[in-house]
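Whether sequence alone determines local backbone shape is best considered at the level of individual chains. Part of our work consisted of pairing the sequence of a single chain with a tokenised description of its backbone. This step matters because it turns folding into a mapping between discrete strings. For completeness, the protein is quoted in full, as a sequence line and a line of structure tokens:

_____
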Amino acid sequence: MSEIAALTGVSISTVSRVLAGKSNTRPSTRDKVLAAAQQQGVLDNLHSGRLLLNNLMVFAPPRAFDVRSDIFYYKVIQGISQAVEPHEVRLRYCPLEEIESDAALFIEKMQQTEAALLIGIDDEHIHQLAAEMNKPCVLINALDRRMRLPSVAPHHQLIGEYSARYLFEQGHRQILSLHCLRRYTMEQRLQGYVMHGTP
């Protein structure tokens, strides 16, 4: 920290705040410290530690922000909020349609943040824009067919297969599955039930 402070002309306590991800430092100072830290190799081993981000935007379909409309996405968003709470990360939200999203709104919000999470957004144009903006961006439960962005998604077909197999192992022989097939993910889950549909 003393070497970075000497290189940048700021105090050791300022370097400490920046490297700890605290938000109470001017952006220009923060950028200078991070550039020096990168140059000194300090950031090389921080990949498993706290992200040095203070602003994170969550994009999700409008229904994701209402527990009664989509409890899965709602719980995902609550989990993200709880995970970043101890780290002084400003978490903001933007409703965005899954398909035919508002590209102008997306660009505007991306310019206001350091990183983004896209939950259930399948619009390929949005994926392309996100990849071109050179900011950390991760897809959650979405499909980027060109694999431009890192993503996290459950394997819906296996969920269906596992669920059906579990019920059959419990001795059930007649199973009713109610689905709202508004997304391809639910169709995949239904296919998993069907594939394992005979005990």
Summary: The chain has three domains: 2-45, 55-152, 156-195. Residues 44 and 157 are 38 Å apart (CA to CA).
